[in-house]
Amino acid sequence: MHELRTGVAFFLFLTLLAGLVRVIRGPTLTDRFIVAQLFGTTGVGVLVLLAADGDRGALRDVALIFALLAPVTVVAFVRFAIGDPPEDSRR
């Protein structure tokens, strides 16, 4: 089972590398954002798989923190893409 988990983690890592190409060549800001979300989700998956291969509870904690920070990146992207609201609508 160790080899299977390591193989799946390696495959997920390769998808991260493939996504890096889209970050560099992505035609729009939205494409780059989607890949950033892919990095977060896949990174959590890789960390959970590696944490299951032994007594690595710290990796599971890091995966949980990454998963909790993912919505923050969505909010940051929307604020950046839309811009700040006008002064009179902030009330």
UniProtKB/TrEMBL annotation:
It comes from the Bacteria. InterPro entries: MrpF/PhaF-like. It holds the Pfam family MrpF_PhaF. Its main location: membrane. GO terms for molecular function: sodium:proton antiporter activity. The chain crosses the membrane at residues 33-52, 64-82. It is a multi-pass membrane protein. It is found in: Cell membrane. Keywords: Cell membrane, Membrane, Transmembrane, Transmembrane helix, Transport. GO terms for cellular component: plasma membrane. Belongs to the CPA3 antiporters (TC 2.A.63) subunit F family. This is Multiple resistance and pH regulation protein F.
